[in-house]
Each structure stands twice: as C-alpha cells, then as structure tokens.
Amino acid sequence: MGHKEDLLEGAKRCLLEKGYGRTTARDIVAASGTNLASIGYHYGSKDALLQQAFLALTEEWGERVTVSDAGEGAVRPAADPYERFRAMWAQLIGAAEASRPVWKLQTEVVTRLDDDEKLREAIKEPQREGRLGIAEGMLGIDPEADPEKARVAGLLCQALATGVMIQWMVDPDTAPSADDLTEGLRVLMGE
To answer: Which PROSITE patterns does the UniProt entry name for this protein (predicted)?
Structure first.
C-alpha cells in the first residue's frame, strides 16, 4: 500500500478506537506509519480524510451485513416476503455485536451534523445509495427495475436499522429479534 491507502486504513482504525471527535492528525500518522504532510497531500485535510474513512467503514459494514441472493443463507427474491424480511433482520441482528464500533461511530457522527455542514454533505449521497443497497441486497428489489419501490423499501429498512441497532447497543437483553420484528410487521399489516 502507498501512503494514501495507509492513511485511510490508519484513519479507519482511529475512528473505531477513538471516535470522530477525539482522533487527531498525529493519531492517524502514528496508526498509518506515514507523516503529517501526507494527509494534506493526499486528502487536503484531516477532516476530509476522516470523512473518507467514515464512509469507507460504513460501506464495509453494509457489505458485511447484506444478504445477497448469491450468498450463503440468502433468501431468494421469490420467497415469502415475511421470510425475506425475517432473514434480513436475522443477518443484521446477528452482526450487532461485531457492528457495535461502527454504530457507536455513526451515532457520534450524527451528533456532529448540525455543526459540520461539510460532513453532512459528504454523507448525503452515500446514505441514499445505502438505502438502495439495502433494498437490493437484503430484499431483492432491483433499484433499476423499480426505483421507487427500492427507494421506499430502503427508507423503511434504514430507519428500522437505526432504531434496532440503538436498542441493541442500549440493552441487548430486550432488543428485538428478527422474529419479533417480523411478527410486529404482521401485526401492523393486520394479519
């Protein structure tokens, strides 16, 4: 790897260990084995590097928890929609403990958005793309074939994921299971 990649990997480690607000340029340099000048040369600023590192971490998390149709344990698109929903949540909740550092970081980043317009702008488009990725990878909805269906399904799942993961962070003993969420959906649907 070159300095640019080393910096990104070092920044990702620092974000997970120290958080967004406590990570300094010197921390990143120490974690990456590079030098301070490399940050400005490759990323322009520490903040731009941290934004890239945050986006990379959330993208990597999404790739780890997405149930693809080709993957092991995947539920095929033609499967019962409730079973597909349950499988999606089983995958997400199954990764809850391993995902804790990323969700802790995401929670911190959300609290910074009112004071950091550049950060807010940097995550808007990846958030939109993430919704479509959830719809496609976890629900089998092709965003190109049905963009509106993918958009609204992704919005709902993204909103639920945030709430579910926060519940798992606060109290794993009473946080919802995949079966709880599926039964709750059945109740909401009047079944």
So the answer is: HTH_TETR_2 (PS50977)
